[in-house]
Amino acid sequence: QKEVEQNSGPLSVPEGAIASLNCTYSDRGSQSFFWYRQYSGKSPELIMFIYSNGDKEDGRFTAQLNKASQYVSLLIRDSQPSDSATYLCAVNTGFQKLVFGTGTRLLVSP
Amino acid sequence: DAGITQSPRYKITETGRQVTLMCHQTWSHSYMFWYRQDLGHGLRLIYYSAAADITDKGEVPDGYVVSRSKTENFPLTLESATRSQTSVYFCASKPVNTEAFFGQGTRLTVV
Q1: What distance in Å separates residue B97's CA from the closest CA in chain A?
Q2: Residue among A10, A66, A16, A3 at smallest CA distance from B43
Q3: From CA B67, how far away is CA A89, in angstroms rounded?
Q4: Do B59 and A45 touch (CB under 8 A)?
Q5: Each residue's pLDDT tens digit in chain A (110 positions)?
Q6: Pairwise CB contact (< 8 Å): A43 & B103
Q7: Which terminus of chain A has fewer CB atoms gathered within 10 Å of its CB, N or C?
């Protein structure tokens, strides 16, 4: 079992819709969770981080964390074509080891 | 310039040769990481370091060596390059309990 799992996609949504990206992790000692966006040929860049159970909102983005279910999600509201990218879930394990999922490719069609 | 830089950006090397990828950060972050990124595999952790002279293996360490004599530098060496090590390599650094910051990446081709 991989430490962090994501559906590779692609996830296709029309412009203006809500995109929902999901991630599960195996280490119950994990303390912090991150969503990165990566455009083709570029480095990953941070979108959001979340440490506590519940929702955290930042503009069009909402991160959701459920530690009991070991589940993290990212919602993108009013999706734009410029949101088309690969979204990487990352988990900071108990030893500060940062582990990534394989990423979900999001395609937003105009 | 402040930040994290990798060199070289592009490298072509022959099978069996030793090659070193450089990573330098100016923030004095404690933690540094090396990842490789291949299609279908996402970012896979090769090695990471919690401080100078403290390193540990990640998911795919075989064929790689790291060192960290200074906080700001974390070079990655392929002792005898193989074609399977053709990949994009990313270095990252982070303080405790916050996000990681990535370098621009090094595209390595082993022929």
Answers
A1: 7
A2: A3
A3: 27
A4: no
A5: 678 999 988 999 999 999 999 999 999 988 899 999 999 999 999 999 999 999 999 999 999 999 999 999 999 999 999 999 999 999 998 778 889 999 999 999 99
A6: yes
A7: N
